[in-house]
Specification:
single chain; alpha/beta; nine-stranded mixed beta sheet; 8 helices; binds NADP nicotinamide-adenine-dinucleotide phosphate
């Protein structure tokens, strides 16, 4: 990284998963199957990040607002040395997002749409009229390394937290950008060849290409297991040691 540029943000990912490894039903309609413990965990993880990011598919199917949540989570963010609201980042090739989506109407941090040169100027203008900052990276897919560098430089993002879905997750894994994974393992079986999992897309063809993580903690709360994995890599393994605690949320 050249002088004057910010370091790449630490990138974490959080998903709830059934006992058979699915993250939604075959219709992709039900993905909020976690308990209230899982819900709290989701907001506690958001409270460690400057920005929360999802793919457009997740925003469309879950209509999530990607915001910091109730006052006590906003207070937790302050204790973590962060602003009360996280930035909200949506990744989309076409930037075609319905005006009815809650990311446009619910209070929260600035909304940033990372898109491509494919995005129609009308879609970009419509999102901008609704208050979003739109930035184009790449021709076919969003060039995630470039987009994330821009988030670090222009928006001072040091910790970026991704909440899926499967397509965006796989693009992050393919670019080798994920430092930490949180999985809530839930006592459900959804089955189904087409039910989404944590990462989809083309995938890796061999063990040599596959991304490797190390299990760093397992915690049971109620009927669910909360797992944390950190990447196995020379450069970042050191930063991963000891994990991220609420008190040391920033590196
Ligand atoms: N259990 C959980 O914790 C959890 C969490 C999140 C989501 N889910 C579930 O997962 C399913 C959604 O999965 P999904 O794979 O459709 O989700 P996704 O990755 O959120 O959305 C796919 C869309 O995001 C955009 N996108 C993703 N990667 C991109 C890239 N590299 N470049 C440009 N655009 C990119 C594209 O948007 P455009 O179409 O706008 O171009 C693409 O069509 C839903 O059923 C959801 O409920 C479950």
């Amino acid at each position: 990284m050249g002088s004057g540029r910010s370091a790449r943000p630490w990138i974490s990912l959080n998903m709830a998963m059934t006992a058979d490894g699915k993250t939604a039903t075959a219709t992709r309609s039900i993905s909020s199957f976690g308990s209230p413990h899982d819900r709290r965990h989701l907001y506690e993880l958001r409270a460690q990040a400057d920005a929360v990011m999802t793919g457009a598919g997740t925003v469309r199917s879950e209509n999530a607002d990607l915001a910091a949540g109730a006052n006590h989570f906003r207070a937790l963010r302050r204790r973590n040395g962060l602003s009360p609201e996280n930035l909200r980042v949506v990744v989309s090739r076409g930037a075609k997002l319905s005006p009815a989506l809650r990311v446009f109407s619910e209070p929260g941090g600035a909304l940033i749409i990372l898109t491509t040169r494919q995005a129609h100027p009308r879609a970009v203008a419509a999102a901008e009229r609704r208050g979003a900052a739109v930035a184009r990276f790449g021709a076919r897919d969003v060039d995630l390394p470039a987009a994330i560098r821009w988030l670090a430089d222009a928006w001072k993002v040091r910790r970026l937290h991704c909440e899926g879905g499967a397509e965006l997750n796989q693009a992050l894994f393919a670019a080798d950008l994920v430092d930490e994974i949180h999985v809530t393992w839930c006592p459900w079986i959804f089955g189904g060849r087409t039910s989404p999992t944590l990462a989809e897309g083309v995938g890796f063809g061999s063990l040599a290409e596959a991304r490797r993580f190390r299990l760093s903690s397992v915690r049971q709360r109620g009927k669910e297991l909360f797992l944390r994995f950190v990447r196995e890599s020379r450069a970042l393994a050191r930063s991963a040691k000891g994990g991220v605690t609420r008190r040391s949320a920033r590196r």
